[in-house]
Design goal:
The chain is mainly alpha-helical. It has 2 domains: about 15-125, DNA polymerase, domain 1 (Orthogonal Bundle), CATH 1.10.150; about 140-180, no CATH class. It has helices at about 15-25, 30-45, 50-65, 75-90, 95-115, 140-150, 155-170, 175-180. The longest helix is centred in the middle third of the chain and has 21 residues, at about 95-115. The relative contact order is 0.08.
Amino acid sequence: MQTVVRKTQRKGVRSTQNVKSLKNTEQKMNLFKMFERFINYKQTEGLAKPTIQGYYEHFHYLNTLLDGDIPNVEVTLGLFRDYIGYMLHEQGLKPTPVNVRIRTNRAFFRHCNQEGWIEIPIHETFKPIKTPEDKIQAFTPAEVKVLLNQIDDSRFVGFRDKVMIYVLLDTMVRFLNYLI
């Protein structure tokens, strides 16, 4: 039996002159080209199709504000703040969908900054918008009694439902969605 030994290191060293010329080329990129490269990278990571589709969708929303392609040097924090204002005030979106778009675009801008396509790390500066906390109303003891009295536990189905409700109440699990 023959043993195969593989080389783990490549021959040659990348010169700094090549790196500088690569940076100059990448400085002339536009937003669409950066996004195309970003999507290619994300696809090689093996992300699910709905995730990739979400990146396309949220990039489209950004592109709607820009009304076309822009060079990478125009991708600034001010531009993204304008985008957030556009979503909140002109489109009238609630904070939650705005935050979803912010998160996906932050991933895109983080990748662009790490690759050297944009100089300013704008992904570090902006954060998701504060959203109001959802207040969950608990059932009163009287409401629980009314609920349990509606169940006919002489049959298996009613007994099963009553046991499920007791388990949910005892473990304090939210179950309003299950009852509707």
